[in-house]
Amino acid sequence: MRLAEYPDDIAFATAIGIAPARQAPPSEDRHVPAPLMAEAQLFRRLGLSKTLISTMLVRAGQHGTTLEAELIASGMVAPDIYYEALAEILGLPFLRKLDPNEVEDLPGADSQLVEPTVVRLRQRTRAPITAIVPSAARLDYLQERLRFSPSLRTMMVSTTPVAVRAAVWQAGSGRRLRETVDRLFSATPEASARITLWGRQGFYIGMALTLLVMLLAIQPIAVLLLLHIVLGLFFFATVIIRVMALLAKWREKFRTRPAPLLGRRPVYSVFVALYREAAVVPQLVATLNRLQWPAACLDIKLICEADDRETLDALAAAALGPQFEIVTVPPGRPRTKPRALTYALGAARGEFLVIYDAEDRIDPMQLEEAWRTFAAGPAHIACLQAPLIITNARESWISALFAVEYAGLFRVLLPRLAAARMPMPLGGTSNHFRTRVLQDVGGWDPFNVTEDADLGLRLYRLGYRCGVISRPTYEEAPTEIRAWLGQRTRWFKGWLQTWLVLMRRPSQLVREMGLGPSLVFQVLVGGLILSSLAHPLILAYLGVIVWRLVALENATVGLLDLTLFTLDALNIAGSYAVFIALGRIGMTREERRTVGSRWALTPVYWLLISQAAWRAVRELRSNPFFWNKTAHRPAKTQEGPAAAPGTG
């Protein structure tokens, strides 16, 4: 097949299958889009086969992208060779890499991380030059400029998008790190956990504790009684809100997923923060490669600490496609996951953005469902939470009860909160965002060690809402008490930070959230913390009353003690029963079989939760920003269990 056989663009388009072969009337649109046709001609000149060009043109038309983007994403065109060829066509020197020390970190330089087109280079031995990234769409324009101004060739070089991004990342790393740590605190200090007790909040809490100690010294019985009643009511409220979610789940009808959308796919950013995760890199890359989303529309950022050589070496050895980018975060404090995520946030190219953990195994259609849900819903839905499913419940009683807990949380409680338009503390992974909204609210708080819960509640205060989707993410739970306890201590510490942040101005919180949602917040976060701290104390009180009735002859229990005993017994028995019921109704039959009878160890599990809560209180004072890293390993089973009933 010779090019001379096709004297015009229409003939060529017909031959490669993107235009009708019949002769169309003059009034009928019979032209391939001009930009795609121009790209097709360029790649014909570069020697690509017509079959390949035809296939990529079809993809570009389906996805709303360009032929250039599809060819590079497919791996059929090596980016360095392609951009060097464009440099030859333009008659410009080609630089495969740029020296970061020569890049000027000017205001707005980070825009080149999103769409790399041009950077200014200062060199010691010559005048400044401009490094450009040519593209098929701009090639004719650039040729025309150079034809009319030949002297520009002495002031310009050509390079690649990867080279520009790498140089800009390094050139602005110090400034970007300072902005990452200071941005939220500088813009809205009351929303940041950088200061544990803020302003008059510390004064009031200190005064309240002092008054409590004084009253305990003067009237210990009355004060302890009052504390008992308050804690019991908070505990009871946490049980009731879960009972309501349980009843709603029983009444729930099958929810259909949003219908498929036709037309262009937006760019979707995928952020994964990695720290000491070399062992799971192969699994992670394989998982991300299975995502059912056009590679040309993916912006995958693997975010690593610059001094984590083991993980960086593992990524360097992996076969990463053009949609992947490794972002290195300079050393600094606090060393937390939200700091790493916020460092990379300004470089997100996607209209939507999702967060994953390194050990996650993701349903390949999760991005598709999230995009459909965003498109079908109102603009104030800023975030969608995917369910997290534990796949190693059979390994230990800890992982079994962790699976029960997650099933109740992600497949029953959070969907109910979303349906009721109530505040929703997010999970730490599989959060899908509208990128612009996430950037506008300041991203994640680098100082909050449970950044997901903090962000979900901050979004609610600012007028946004969160929803849920049904395509799951599969994870493995810790199997040893020590690892589980470290992780849960960090969670409680972050929930304490979040509660303190939101309670800095209680009246403002009620105005922003509304009375009902603010009460739900108090029960979800404050009630969880208080009930976990009080749990062993309530058990001890129940034990004392039972011992008095059983072991002491002629012992009597007054009406007040009997009332408190009844309330405490209902709280304890109800919390265990609801915990188990929520988990079991959220699980599939196969998952329930895997857990077996280990749900009977729920009381022990709750005592461990209480231990983690008390450790968190101590750590909040001594080491508030310490990130207790959970070690991960490749999953033993790559396939997760079936989705929960009613998830479609």
Give a verbal description of the structure.
The chain has 648 residues and is an alpha/beta fold. It has 24 helices and 13 strands. It folds into three domains: 3-77, no CATH class; 82-171, no CATH class; 173-191 and 198-648, Alpha-Beta Complex (Spore Coat Polysaccharide Biosynthesis Protein SpsA, Chain A). Helix 3 crosses helix 4. The longest helix is centred in the last third of the chain and has 37 residues, at 515-551.
Shape: elongated
The end-to-end distance, rounded to whole angstroms, is 50 Å
| CATH architectural type of the largest domain | Alpha-Beta Complex
DSSP summary, beta strand count: 13
Broad CATH class of the largest domain: Alpha Beta
How would you describe this structure in keywords?
Spore Coat Polysaccharide Biosynthesis Protein SpsA, Chain A; 648 residues; 24 helices; alpha/beta; 13 strands; seven-stranded mixed β-sheet; disordered C terminus; three-stranded mixed β-sheet; elongated
Q: What is the secondary structure topology, with strand pairs?
A:
Layout: H1 9-16, H2 34-45, H3 50-63, H4 67-74, H5 79-90, H6 111-114, E1 118-121, E2 129-132, H7 139-148, E3 156-158, H8 161-171, H9 173-187, H10 200-218, H11 220-251, E4 268-274, H12 281-289, E5 298-305, H13 309-317, E6 324-329, H14 337-345, E7 352-356, E8 361-362, H15 366-376, E9 381-385, E10 388-390, H16 397-419, E11 431-434, H17 435-440, H18 451-461, E12 465-468, E13 473-475, H19 481-502, H20 506-513, H21 515-551, H22 559-586, H23 589-595, H24 602-622
Parallel strand pairs: 2-3, 4-5, 4-7, 5-6, 9-12, 10-13
Antiparallel strand pairs: 1-2, 7-11, 8-13, 9-11
Helix pairs in contact: 2-3, 3-4, 10-11, 11-16, 11-21, 11-22, 16-22, 18-19, 19-21, 19-24, 20-21, 21-22, 21-24
